[in-house]
Amino acid sequence: MTIDSEEGVEVEVSAPEQPTRPAPIVLDRERHCISRNLIPDNILKVLYRLLRSGFKAYLCGGSVRDLLMSRTPKDFDIATDAHPMQVRRLFRNSRIIGRRFRLAHVVFQEGVVEVATFRREPGVRDDGELLVTDDNTFGTPEQDARRRDFTINALFYNIADFSIIDYAGGLADLESRLIRVIGDPDIRFREDPVRMMRAIEFASRLDFEIEAATWDAIIAHRDEILKASPARVSEEILELLRRGWSLDAFELMVETRLLESLIPGLYGSLVSGEAEYFWRMLEVLDRTIQSGRQFSDGVFWAVLMLPGFFKSLDQEELSRGERLRPGDAFGLVRDVVAPVAARLVFPSGVRHHVEQSLEALWRLQEAPADRKSQWRLVFREHFGDALALFELYSLSSGRSVEMFREWQSFARRVQRQEEPMPSPRSPRRRRRRRKA
Ligand code: ATP
Ligand code: MG
User: Fold this and answer.
1) Which atom of ligand 1 is nearest the CA belonging to 74?
2) Helix, strand or coil, per DSSP, at residue 351
3) In sequence order, which residues have a C-beta less than 8 Å from that of residue 183 and are 6 or more positions away?
4) What is the pLDDT of residue 416?
């Protein structure tokens, strides 16, 4: 079918790309809520220039999903049948990026607009290995929709006639609030195990259910998460925490046991019920983040290690019958951080940051011997992170609340320069040389 767009360009909108597949569902402008007013000018500019140059120009991915749900999209991605070099030629302010996916970036003062050429899923390799390593084969719009992860992420908004094009059943799933993998979830999760985490992320963030076959496949393939790039997995974990939707996501990770594969120590503490405060801590963290406060990645990782840390600390102190010495406490911190750092391949800087924050937190648990040591701690690296951790921990566990408050007000006084600096050690007297 072809229709006339506002600009008088004839554009094909709903012809099926492959005869065996049913035609996509196309929602005309009157039947959905996406208005051009909701799309930033730069994005419209790029869409229209592609269209006027004879190419297809679709808004795709999370932006269409979010606009249909009346949410504000994080970013607006564009898909087209123009090849990256053609996009490059159309926009002087563009560059081609990426080795794995060849994309064009159109650079505006307000930010970068990503324009991707329709791609298809590469075939299965000869050795039967499914992990996708090269995702750079160009394809049709339908193939591009089908290589995407979930049905709700595969919707297109066609600038030619302002219609929504749905090749994968995303509209129905948006309506039923379901996260459903496109295609066979057993295959799609093996191709890219990070999709399991994305399913959980979208379910918690949008408050959707995970569809049954998708859910079962996460349970079946949870261990394969360790085959994915540790950097991507770490980013996914951090995103849950950074964006303030960690509570539901961690509950789902426990239910599917994905967390057992990722951070077994934390999983163990949570299923045994010995760290109930952890759930309250995530709740407080999510709420605090949603109200605009930020935390460093070191704090986020340390939060995930707190149950393991306090468990070992309690055990150790109980068996010794006294508080640990600093050196021993640091050894304990390292023992708790090491397995997670190894599994998720932390860069050494991240590992150091987490270790330092946890150790500083341990030091804050005790009343300082004197004002000098109190000062020393406040100026220690990652003191702010340790204090933030202490706050989250004491508020959610009810432990050491008084101690936290004391440290908090002391740190504030130091910050406002209301706290006199302890007098330095009395300087050694220099004998004045007598004038001759
Ligand atoms: P957000 O609002 O967080 O940006 P998003 O849906 O836009 O959500 P992105 O990570 O920005 O997610 O990815 C853009 C689109 O690319 C997705 O909507 C999806 O269609 C596709 N996509 C992203 N990651 C994958 C993946 N691992 N496998 C298949 N498709 C993916
Ligand atoms: Mg996005």
Assistant:
1) 2
2) helix
3) 146
4) 83
Return the pLDDT at 6: 35
Question: Hey, what are 385's tokens?
Answer: 């992170």
Structure tokens at 435: 């004038």
Nearest to 28 by CA among 160, 161, 152: 161
User: In a mutational test of the pocket of ligand 1, which residue from 134, 149, 173, 218 has the highest number of ligand atoms less than 8 Å from its CB?
Assistant: 149
Q: Residues 21, 142: contact at Cβ < 8 Å?
A: yes
The pLDDT-based confidence of 98 (bands split at 50, 70, 90) is confident
Q: Where in the chain is the domain with CATH 1.10.110.30?
A: 177-262
To the nearest whole percent, how much of the chain has pLDDT over 70? 88
Backbone angles phi, psi at 83, to 5 degrees: -75, 155
In contact, 411 and 387? CB cutoff 8 Å: yes
Q: Residue 238 is inside which H or E element, if any?
A: helix 230-242
Q: Is the CB of 195 under 6 A from ligand 1?
A: yes
Q: How far is the CA of 60 from the centre of ligand 1 (A)?
A: 9
Q: Are 59 and 68 in contact (CB under 8 A)?
A: no
State how far the Cα of 257 lies from the Cα of 223, in Å rounded to an integer. Answer: 9
| Mutate-to-test residue for ligand 1 from 71, 77, 100, 148, highest number of ligand atoms within 8 A of CB | 148
CATH 3.30.460.10 in the chain, residue ranges:
1-176
What is the rounded distance in angstroms from the CA atom of residue 307 to the CA atom of residue 28?
52
Class of domain 177-262 (CATH, top level) = mainly alpha
- What are the beta bridge partners of residue 117? 80
Please say if the pLDDT value at position 253 is more than 90: yes
Which residue from 214, 170, 183 is spatially nearest to 196, judged by alpha carbons?
214
Q: Which stretch of 119-123, 280-284, 417-421 has the lowest confidence by average pLDDT?
A: 417-421
- Using a 10 angstrom Cβ sphere, with 0-12 exposed, 13-18 middle and 19 or more buried, the burial of residue 185 is buried
Q: Which fold has domain 1-176?
A: Beta Polymerase; domain 2 (3.30.460)
Residue nearest to atom 27 of ligand 1 (CA): 195
Most confident of the ranges 211-215, 272-276, 371-375: 211-215
**What mean pLDDT is predicted for residues 392-405?**
93
Tell whether the model's pLDDT for residue 429 goes beyond 60: no
pLDDT value of position 21: 72
Residue 250, pLDDT above cutoff 90: yes
Closest of 144, 203, 163, 195 to residue 17, by C-alpha: 144
pTM given for the model:
0.88
